[in-house]
Input
Amino acid sequence: MVMATKKAPLKVGLFVGREWSFPPAFLEEVNRRNDGVIAEYMKVGGTMMNEPTEYRVIVDRISHEVPYYRSYLKNAALQGVKVVNDPFMWSADDKFFGASLATQLGIASPKTVVLPNHSYVPGIVPTESLRNLKYPIDWYALVESVGGFPVVLKDAHGGGWRDVYICRSMEDLWRNYNKSGLLTMVLQEFIEWDNYARCMVLGQEDVHVMKYSPGQHGAARYHEQHDFDAKLYKRLVDDSLTLCRALNYDMNTAEYAIRDGVPYALDFMNAAPDMDINSLGKVHFDWMVTHMADMVIRLAKSNEGTRDRYTWTSHASKASKAKSPRKKLVTSE
Ligand SMILES: Nc1ncnc2c1ncn2[C@@H]1O[C@H](COP(=O)(O)OP(=O)(O)O)[C@@H](O)[C@H]1O
Ligand SMILES: [Mg+2]
Output
């Protein structure tokens, strides 16, 4: 009699921060399906280089605030894990690069300029350390280049509406810039929008389009229904997929300010997007939970790894081949 050997389940690990509704609902949804994949919270505490991991997929919702986790995840990627989101891309991304990339991808994007920093870490001596910097800044030309006032001044690496200012005059702009300290700020064309969308994109193939009211609080922000016509809806889906595929994000929201039917991509580096039931409401929350479960199960069963995109993998495998002991030549001595 042939005994059927039971295959060990594939494991999905989760890193989380201060969120309470999404993590347990997501873990329960994956485990409830009993589909050969189990999901659980991860625990780490000091990591040896090249430490292997038992996880096939890791979902990361907090490494932007816990840098040790980011280092851990880069090592996990090197071991072949599929990390959601790619810790390398996330480390490199910013709203200025994003605006340039979006434009190259043919996506409508507000005109965007990156500004020199306002302040520097101690030890920077302007006459010596900043010799590449032109001085003074030609503020009038920069404002003109993004279409004149009002302009948006915001942190190139920001999230959660921190350090976002709508400036209506030069005094306004300087006052806010003078508060920016060590941050890298972008100056952006203000899109006078008549509608607004926020699209959740999972696994670079699944898009959930939501109508959104920025500035509102809690559940008032996300509308249960949208009012986008078919052409606009299709463009939102297509642009969101194009952006997330180019950036290699598997869990991201893309935000669009819509003016005269054209969606301008404003903010598409939300790599740990809001998944709280209190802001999303039940309908959108249920979509997130079930579609996140679909995605991690698909990825766990695939051969995809975060490292597939990077050339260091092929160098590492060449080096390990070179080091492996050669077969002894059999000679007739
Ligand atoms: N270029 C812009 N034109 C119009 N409104 C903008 C623009 N940039 C930002 N905003 C407004 O500011 C909000 C926060 O900016 P956003 O870039 O999304 O920053 P965060 O990453 O902090 O969410 C947006 O939801 C939008 O309402
Ligand atoms: Mg935003």
Observations:
- Residues 10-90 form a domain with the Rossmann fold fold (CATH 3.40.50.20).
- Residues 277-301 form the longest helix (25 residues).
- Residues 110, 152, 154, 158-162, 164, 188-191, 214, 255, 257, 266-267 surround adenosine-5'-diphosphate (ligand 1) (CB under 6 Å).
